[in-house]
Amino acid sequence: MKDIIRELYEVETRGNYTSSQIEQGIHDYEVRKFSLKELEHITGNFSEKLGQDGFSAVYKGKFEYGEVIAVKRFDKRLRKPEQQFEKVVNIVKLEHKNIVRLTGYCYEPTKVPVLNDKNPDMYILQDVIENLLCYDFFPNGSLERILDDKSCELDWQTRHKIIRGICEGLHHLHVGCQDAPIVHEGIKPTNILLDDGMVPKLGDFCTSMAVTPRGYIAPEVMGTGEATIRSNIYSLGVLIIEIATGDRCPSDESSGRSYIENALKSWKQGSYVASKYPSLQAGFVQQVECWINIGLNCVEILPERRPTIGQIMHFLDTESTNPECYEYVEFSLSAGSSITAWSSSEMGDHANELDALESMLCDASVEPTKLSYTLLKLVTRNFYRLIGHGGFGAVYLGVLPKGKVAVKKLSILQDLSNTAFMDEILCLKKARHSNVVRLLGYCAVAEGQLMEANGTHVMAERTEMLLCFEYVPNGDLQNYIKEECRGHEWQVRYQIIKGICHGLHYLHKQRISHLDLKPGNVLLDANMEPKITDFGLSRFLAEGKSIIVTKQAFGTRGSIAPELINSGEISFKSDIYGLGVIITKLLTRDNNYDFDNWHKSLEVGCSQEKMCVELARRCVEYDQHKRPTIDEIIRELNEMENTIQEEEPPIIQ
């Protein structure tokens, strides 16, 4: 009986961290130890709550002589409170203007009444640990309050000051600590406090990842649950984008990625910053654009492609010593160990290679050639201007003295990357058509890269794979359908359909099956002429062979043919299905149409549009054998145009 009673009273083992050990760890620092009774008195028995998360609440406390502090009280039911106080020893060492100062603590065993599981009418006393932390109080509250308050319009100079302070604080955590880098487990607006001068302070180092909104958590952490230096950079990137744009990041993971995609899209359009800050001078507009670009680099899916905090601080130093740097230099952080300004003398070292690349832009008969990594790094300004991102990699703008190019950096797993790289080169070398994007050159180079492994850093070899294409200025068809299609007449949309059909007809004649034909893989040039791109999934079909079978289905949901999903069958008819989806979206002017009933509610005008409705329905037949071939489609388009010409009345002079 005594054993049972003892079990009811005893709390589970909570660890080995005792109050005396905590005091031993912080005895060299000016941190006051409070009793629970003292903190109850200072806070008015915890009456004024400033904030709360899943495992703690923060209260306002005031001493009799007037000083105000913030008191964080952890949930008494928290398992292993010693883990939180293990972090206290690290926090107390952090002396930096952009880090919240710990001023006191309480770690006190106590007893609380809890219901008896065996007898619900009876309470028992349970041993718990009251653990509290005391910090400086900041009347401006958190960054979240400022960002949410629409009446509090921050100018760019203040926003820039906040961004800079957060970066400096994080740099101190990652680089400035003597023993080892400190990883913050909850970089989010609620954990950034602002003093009277709007100087930001990183706080709440005891945050659990469980209460951090998923929009701020790096994708790789979702699986491991463990924050790293690289995942801190991801969270920093989301914060930078939020502060620079004023648009809030949603809390869930999927909406968080959509938020980033929307930020990328707005940044690419170029007009967003000017509309957000209409009174800014040109140099400051470039500064805002540059910081949004830095934020976008920080939220790269692959952790190793994110900049380090050291690289970001290098940029801040450059910015401070030369405020006019935006007028003549572009910056990148995702590739390379420093931010580089390219001089005319460096350009001269690659003059011959540059001339050859420029001549290819003017002469479509020149074969794609091997290009050096240095040249591609040079023309993209160290991969600065991100203009697109897909499943196989990021695309950057390259600027030549007499033209522009698009440089695609593959960023998928190494074994898949090799295959996709070679497949795309082989397909594009064969494809020479006005409705297929033109490959100018390619590059594969092994580079040493510092990576984390088993708690340490090692130098690993990574192969950088790049493709250089002609630059197509009007973006992709997906964006056109979403944003611009409603303002264009049917003839513009028909010319796009016709151009895609001609491009696909050419590819099939070359025995190339694209296998990822969708609006996002069709680019539009200055004349709205479509160009098929992204051949990373493409396959060659040998002469006399109409179907091959793969073990794994691939492609984009909504555009992938049913037989590829069901049985792994690849054929030219797989592309016809994707073509049908594109035609349907151009007809409905909608990326989210009703697949089964779209044709019933569609209002069509001319006979040409009606024929395209029927063509789209046949292209997306579930049975691939019922779909037309591209030869049949081209023939039907020609016959349709001839019929329309014959029906047109003669022009009377």
From TrEMBL:
Q: Which UniProt keywords apply?
A: ATP-binding, Kinase, Nucleotide-binding, Serine/threonine-protein kinase, Transferase
Q: Which Pfam families match?
A: Pkinase (PF00069)
Domain (Protein kinase) ranges = 44-329, 381-644
Q: Which Gene3D superfamilies match?
A: Phosphorylase Kinase, domain 1 (3.30.200.20), Transferase(Phosphotransferase) domain 1 (1.10.510.10)
* Gene Ontology molecular function: any one: ATP binding
Chain positions recorded as ATP binding sites = K409
User: Which reaction is catalysed here?
Assistant: L-seryl-[protein] + ATP = O-phospho-L-seryl-[protein] + ADP + H(+); L-threonyl-[protein] + ATP = O-phospho-L-threonyl-[protein] + ADP + H(+)
State the protein's name: non-specific serine/threonine protein kinase
E.C. designation(s): 2.7.11.1
Instruction: Please report the organism this UniProt entry assigns to the protein.
Output: Aegilops tauschii subsp. strangulata (Goatgrass)
